[in-house]
């Protein structure tokens, strides 16, 4: 690290070490990078696709033993389409990891945790589940939701990880093509009405996270969610990703229920565009 | 008890000489309020124009081993939709001046934005004639003393609140620009904006910033900024606000000794976070006490007299 901390976790150029097709629209890209492979679950990196764009990405795998980390990328826009065309050996830039991750060990008393992942929200939550199961011996209730069966990410990985009677794995799809038909928030609501958890983790579309937050407020469950906003500097100075008094890149992206209460006039309601104007969610 | 940290710049009363620099965080009322809660003596908004602007594509910043190069491209929601952000702060009646940074592509633009800023509650305006990476504005105006004078005169004729002029270091003679601005009626001068710069990646052989060029900020530009403040102080009576690489109380005191009445802080937030305002303020206070000075005012420009 440089003596000037402005340079902490500054840009380095990495070769793509491996590429894996996860679903028709999602690919994982693996990198050997000491700094990012020691990230906390929920922290993010900025990925520079040379000549195209720079975008924030969650880490879907964090493996310090093998000096390995992965991002999983859904094809949604110009940057991600360009990334999907890249192959093993191609070069991308990485800054980070940045921000505050999930506080995985907070309040672990009974060892029961709920993880609710909607769509690509599973990307940042898979490493949380791994830590809870492998390092903390927790009992995990995992709710994984997607529009349809072919979009359910990391199914095999989760089934292997949660292959023990003490865990519970429930998939939901909007069209009923796999698991229960409907929304994971409905499943969560039923479970939270009967059971208690040390912590509820959520990541997914903001409407889903907002619903989970409200459920946890009502049932007095501790809560953490990872928010998404348009980002530029990633180091807390440009003000692009603000929600209330917080900067998502620096004070988040993972926020506790207590913190989300402080921004309830924004959370679930609007975000800001590149020009700072409010956009209804 | 008299507050030895209090400063008065063109009628703006600051409880301490630290300010949030333009372009940093000032995109929303709530985030500026958080900076105020963390001890800033004044805050400056993002530069606002007549129309909303998205700014440039990413990468809009690149961290270099010594500082930060940015080419945000003046993203802003426009002065027309900034009223609610300002109201969020003004309604709390906090005694912390709120300065609206203004940019335009002509003197008329500057005057129009400044007028609207005054109307929605700005305590002062800071004219951004120094952004080094947007065509037709910023330092394209700020490098020309005649254009600077024209902008200042037009704005001064339009608003009653103090008008601060923010200068670019990307000129042969910053004093000539400062003199032109002062003569045209600027109430204070901020020196300096970022230094035009770029970063090329050797592996991919490409410039990193989407805009290729940007402005360098942080520790490497502090000696340049201190020199600019020192030179301007020698020739111009207008109060000066120092800006460029302030991260510690020593940095701030150096600017004060060079002739600045206050300092702006920006990039340091990237590694010191918002606590930097309190740590710098506390350090200045300890310095004044240790050296037996009664007030910040006692050390403004002191290096010229020693």
For the structure shown, list the relevant keywords.
heterodimer; A: 281 residues; Elongation Factor Tu (Ef-tu), domain 3; Rossmann fold; 2 domains; seven-stranded antiparallel sheet; seven-stranded mixed sheet; 21% helix; B: alpha/beta; TIM Barrel; eight-stranded parallel β-barrel; four-stranded antiparallel sheet
Q: How would you summarize the topology of this molecule?
A:
The complex is a heterodimer of chains A (281) and B (306).
Chain A: E1 12-15, E2 18-21, E3 26-32, E4 44-49, E5 53-63, E6 68-74, H1 78-84, E7 91-98, E8 112-118, H2 122-135, E9 139-146, H3 155-161, E10 168-173, E11 180-181, H4 184-194, E12 199-203, H5 206-218, E13 223-226, E14 242-243, E15 246-247, E16 254-256, H6 257-262, E17 270-272, E18 278-280
Parallel strand pairs in A: 8-9, 8-12, 9-10, 10-11, 12-13
Antiparallel strand pairs in A: 1-7, 2-3, 3-6, 4-5, 4-7, 5-6, 13-16, 14-15, 17-18
Helix pairs in contact in A: 4-5
Chain B: E1 7-9, E2 12-14, E3 18-20, H1 29-37, E4 42-44, E5 61-64, E6 67-70, H2 83-90, E7 98-102, H3 107-119, E8 124-128, H4 139-142, H5 145-158, E9 163-167, H6 174-183, E10 188-191, E11 195-198, E12 213-217, H7 222-235, E13 240-243, H8 249-258, E14 260-265, H9 269-272, H10 276-291
Parallel strand pairs in B: 3-4, 3-14, 4-7, 7-8, 8-9, 9-10, 10-13, 13-14
Antiparallel strand pairs in B: 1-2, 5-6, 6-12, 11-12
Helix pairs in contact in B: 1-2, 3-5, 5-6, 6-7, 7-8, 8-10
In terms of structural class, how would the helical and strand content of chain B be classed? alpha/beta
Oligomer: heterodimer
Percent of residues in helices of chain A:
10-25%
Specify the CATH class of chain B.
Alpha Beta
CATH architecture of chain B: Alpha-Beta Barrel
Number of helices of chain B: 10
CATH class of the largest domain in chain A: Alpha Beta
CATH topological fold name of the largest domain in chain A: Rossmann fold
Please count the helical segments of chain A.
Answer: 6
Strand percent estimate of chain B = 15-25%
The rounded Rg of chain B comes to 18 Å
Give the averaged pLDDT of chain A, no decimals.
94
Under CATH, the topology of chain B can be stated as TIM Barrel
**CATH evolutionary superfamily of chain B:** Aldolase class I
| Biggest β-sheet: strands ordered side by side in the sheet of chain B | 3-4-7-8-9-10-13-14
Shape of chain A: globular
Structural class of chain A: alpha/beta
**Largest β-sheet summary of chain A:** 7 strands, antiparallel
The CATH fourth-level homologous superfamily of the largest domain in chain A = Nucleotide-binding domain of ferredoxin-NADP reductase (FNR) module
